[in-house]
Design a protein that fits this description.
Layout lengths: L8 E4 L5 H12 L3 E6 L2 H15 L3 E5 L5 H10 L5 E4 L14 H29 L2 E6 L12 H21 L4 E8 L5 H14 L3 H10 L9 H12 L10 E4 L10
Parallel strand pairs: 1-2, 1-4, 2-3, 4-5, 5-6, 6-7
Helix pairs in contact: 1-2, 1-8, 4-5, 6-7
Amino acid sequence: MDYGIAGRKAIVCAASKGLGRACAMALAREGVDVVITARTAATLEQTAEEIRRATGGTVTAVAGDITTEAGRAAALAACPNPDILVNNAGGPPPGDFRNWEREDWIKAVDANMLTPIFLIKAVIDGMCARGFGRIVNITSGSVKSPIPQLGMSNGARAGLTGFCAGLARQVAKHNVTINALLPGPFLTDRLRGTAAAAAAASGRSVEDEIAERARHTPSGRVGDPDEFGAACAFLCAASSGFIVGQNLLLDGGAFNSTMG
């Protein structure tokens, strides 16, 4: 299926690995010129070269912290008029809210709520003027089903979701859509890291911990990042302009509900 976005331009945040990388790869396969961002220059450039080799596409690596003003400015300088924006940033650490100070909360809100909002602010009027725009926010399954130990993530990402629910309805008439992808467990470095920590505490292997996580999903497995990237590309398709303000949960069926 041709998604009708060949030749479009995209910014994909936190794309050196994991779900951001998968989204960048999927968009490049559709012929999108992609600017990818991440903090570690060497890792980012390696990813850019891997995507170029796999897709033959144009991939520009812009190293920087997207949660800072300087990082956002660098990404926008490389792609000032994107047709597609994929917002993504690492989540705040787990813990007990009794131990979190104001500075912890501000950092979480900056990264997982305000950074996407500021990027949207920078690009959305141009998208509306050109009559095409696709914004995809990578949030978390915790937006629908809060995770107790991830209170800062629950709060910051829910705030972004609420803001975008309103804005999405204001810009849809310009063929600009804002939607979110809510990942459950995917086989990323982050999942392997949490599995390694759990394995150290339990005495089991990392593979056993990942298998245990998989048993909690009706699909009986964790997700492949390529599946997530494919969902992102679908939301960015020219034919997806009637999908507005939605939160697509990709969790293998773990969220138990009659209606999403």
